[in-house]
Each structure stands twice: as structure tokens, then as C-alpha cells.
Amino acid sequence: MHRLKVSRAARVLLVAAAAAVVAVTVGAATASSDTAPLNPKHFFWAPGQSPSAQGTANTAANDLIYHGGNAGSGAIGVETKPAVYLVYWGPEWQQGFQTADTDGTLYSSKTLQNYVSSFFGSVGGSPWAGVQTQYCKDALPGSTSCVGGAGFVTNPTHQLKGVWVDPTPVPSDIIALGLAQNLVDDPIAQEAIRASAHFGYDAQATYIILTPPSTIATGQPVYCGYHTQTSSVDGVGNPYRIQYAFIPWLNENWPGLGTSGCGMHNVNATSDSFGNGVFDGYSIVTGHEYAEAVTDPDNFATVQDGWNDAQGNENGDKCAWTNTQNITLGGHAFAVQPLWSNEAYDATGNGCVVSR
Predict the structure, then answer these.
(1) Who's near 352: CB < 8 A, 6+ residues apart?
(2) Residue 233 has pLDDT above 50, yes or no
(3) pTM (2 decimals)?
(4) How far apart are CA 21 and CA 74, in angstroms?
(5) For the chain, what are the domain ranges?
(6) CA–CA dist 172, 48 (Å, integer)
(7) Could you tell me which of 81, 288, 304, 112 has the C-alpha nearest to residue 202?
(8) With 60 as the cut, is the pLDDT of residue 206 above it?
């Protein structure tokens, strides 16, 4: 695996160049593989941080469109039996650490891990995850509904299939590298492959990689996560296609945004011992990436062949940072954003919902 070692000054230039690339490629449904990186990420930007004019704007006046589910060998269109594997990458997770709330109260990394694991342990079968079940893999390309289609997304319980604390070191510039690099040398892709070797390969699963606190590159646009897919044809030895998401450390005092940039206290102004408030961003962001990977998993040579709208926005993008709220899962409250529903939009004119 090739990892870049760059100075802080070089990181600034690296990120600036990456932003120019992302402005062209992120969210693109039909870009040319001759002018864009292979398998670009689909970023979830903090409010006002997208480096492109399109970004992840709330495109609340059009439906998601099905793009065929056939972009390259191994394409799946949607995850019909969604599953999640959580990977806490880095020795810090194994050793344990503390993070401060805005009032100085310290929370342990174990509390955060329990919060995220509890969210995915109970999300399956919920009305919130049920919003995805209107989408399928066998609709005609260009369709905005699955009337006459088959291969629907299902909403089984117990979607969390495994949790792994991987104590291997994380590259020090992981956030900048995740922004700048495509799958040719993306260390997150390699970690996802290692995770699939640890857990076993599941073509219907999303492998979610979470990293501990790390250095923030000066001048970096703030992204809160991304999802994408490896490919067996990218020439670097990935043995199969696998959906994965990257969740960098979210509770930073982001330059110009403060601690709320990636969702801390987005819904709950005060925190409780379970982690509501201080860890709101973690359920919002991981939920966003999970839902998009389920309904638009394939990302092949810049083509996203699942459900996304005419601007390339997915079911999470279209409702990003709007009407966030608590839902109850397994007896606990979790902050989430609504998910886009073509069905609801066509019926009421409001596509951002939290249940079906």
C-alpha cells in the first residue's frame, strides 16, 4: 500500500488541488473516466463547505432516478439485504481516550463506541430505515419508482454484523489523504479490504471505518464523511467490489465552524450520559453514509448507477442538515437527518421524511 508523507505546507497544496478535483467529480453520475479519478468518493460536507457549486445541496424539487445498476462487473444496484460492519481503526480505540464536550465534560471513547454500535444494532427494522424500502435494483433505467420492479431494499433487524477494533496505526494525514486520493492509493479502501478479510466478505454490506482524533490540514474544506466502493479492475489488487464509508473524527473545533461543523449538539443542546448531544453528529453522519450506500452503492469509473437525482445527489444529500431530529431506536434517542422519499415527494411535495 502506498501512503503519501507530506508536510503541513504540502498538505495545504494537496487539499487545494483535491478540492478542484472534487468540484468536478463528487456526486457525478455520468462523468468521463478520461477526465476524472477512478471511483471518486461521494462526500458529505459540513454546511457551507462544499468546494463545488453543486455540492450536496438540498435538491428538494426533483425525484431520485434509477441509473440501471449495471456499472461494471459485480454491480448490485442497491443493497437488498443491508448489513453493517463497524471498524474502529487505530491503537487509540484499543487503549481508550477521552474527548471533551463543549462545557468541558469528558466522555470516553468507549461511550462513543457504544453510542454508534447501539445505533446500528437497532436501526434495522426501524421506520427510519424503512424509507429505503421503496427503492429496488430491477427498475427500468430512468425510473423514479419501482412499480413493476423487483429486488427491493429490505429492512431486516440485526443489521450490525460485527465490530472490530483494529489496533494498527492510522496514517497521520488521513483526512487530507481521504480528500485528495482516489482508490489507486486510498488507505481507507485498504482498511476496508482488511476488514472484509477479518469479518468475511459480504457483497450486501457497508464497512464503516472510524478513526480517532487526528491532525487537521490547514485550509481544508470540512467533510464529515464519504462513501464509495472498491473495484476489482482498479489495478491495485482489490480482490472484489466492496462498499465502504469513512468517518473521520467529527468532534473537532473546526476552523471557522467551531465544534458544531459535523453535527455535535446539532439536535440535543445538552448532553446525557449515553452520548446524546455530544455525539449527535455520529448518528447523523454514519446514518447518512449508511443510507446512501444502501440505495446507491456502486461507484465505478465515476458512474453511480443506483438511485440519485439529476444532479448526482443521493437520498442523504437531498435532506442534508435539514430538519434533523431525534428518533428512538432500542429505547434510546438518536439524532438523525431525514431521508429522501420519492413516494412522499410525489404525494405531498415534501420528500424529506423519517419514516415509512
Answers:
(1) 60, 318, 319, 322, 323, 338, 339, 340, 341, 344
(2) no
(3) 0.87
(4) 26
(5) 8-353
(6) 26
(7) 81
(8) yes
